[in-house]
Amino acid sequence: MTTTEIDYDAIKKSQRAAWETGDYTRVGNTLQIMAERLVEAADVRAGQKVLDVACGQGNVALAAALRFADATGVDYAVNLLERGRARAAAQSADITFLEGDAEQLPVPDGSFDATLSTVGVMFAPNQQRAADELVRVTTPGGKIGHASWTPTGMIGNLFKTVSGWNKPPAGVVPPTLWGTTERLTELFGERVEWISLTKREYVFRYRSPEHLSEWFRTYYGPMTRFAGTLSGADAEKFAADIADVARRFNTATDGTVVAPAEYLEAVGIRRG
């Protein structure tokens, strides 16, 4: 199947409905440290214009704004934008939130000093279009950076488990490819000079593997939406399969979950 044969608009409509299900902020807020690390790695300065792409509840935008940058967040899930605005207000952070698609960002060419994303842009179904947009909106000499789950880490394995139950659309490549240097070379070519490609870990901490499974099935929009279609033995098996992923990566011995999840933190400079 070629790119032109894939109905990306239909896929994004379904994705948007999924992210607006449940309450992703209950998961996303726990990942704030990833945004703090990325903003530091990109050396964001006060007064710089920073765009948080597929921002969700605004982790990167908030981290940038608290460093006195001029922060903007873009996402197509309006409920998450509202949560982002509430978070910004609660922390007296001046952030602009815009409804928009990562594959068609509603901002002018070359308008940002740093264009960043934490586990957000990786979910755009047309990966090449999303990468092109990151380049387009970044000023020459500006930074492009993202944090993306890797295929082999805990979340990569979680996604593979979910895909075994709920097949992704035909022709769409796994989002975790953003967590590989090979895919970044394919997507950006010579347009970005990568100055930092660092494998990091975010550690998930839950009361038990079953607690992690319940939390994700209740709040993680795409998983919540699918779990709602199951009942009986299927629902129980799906819940157990999610818990088993957490169990495989768990390093704790006290019954709780302390599970490192690998991601790639990538920062580059947009060439002119």
Mean pLDDT: 96
Spatial separation of the terminal alpha carbons: 34 Å
Rg (CA only): 18 Å
Order of helices and strands: HHHEHEHEEHEHHEHHHE
What is the CATH architecture descriptor?
A: 3-Layer(aba) Sandwich
> Unreliable segments (pLDDT under 50, ≥5 consecutive)?
none
Helical fraction equals: 40-55%
Largest sheet: 7 strands, mixed
Count of strand segments: 7
Brief digest:
Helix 5 (78-90) links the parallel strand 2 (70-75) and strand 3.
Explain the overall architecture.
The longest helix has 18 residues, at 232-249. α5 links the parallel β2 (70-75) and β3. The chain is of the alpha/beta class. It has helices at residues 8-19, 25-28, 32-41, 59-65, 78-90, 127-137, 154-165, 181-188, 209-219, 221-227, 232-249; strands at residues 49-53, 70-75, 95-99, 112-118, 138-149, 192-206, 257-270. The mean pLDDT is 96. A seven-stranded mixed beta sheet has the order 3-2-1-4-5-7-6, with helices on both faces. It has a single domain, classed as Rossmann fold (3-Layer(aba) Sandwich), CATH 3.40.50.
List keywords for this structure.
7 strands, seven-stranded mixed β-sheet, Erg6_SMT_methyltransf, 24% strand, Rossmann fold, single chain, 272 residues, alpha/beta, Methyltransf_11, S-adenosylmethionine-dependent methyltransferase activity, Methyltransferase family protein
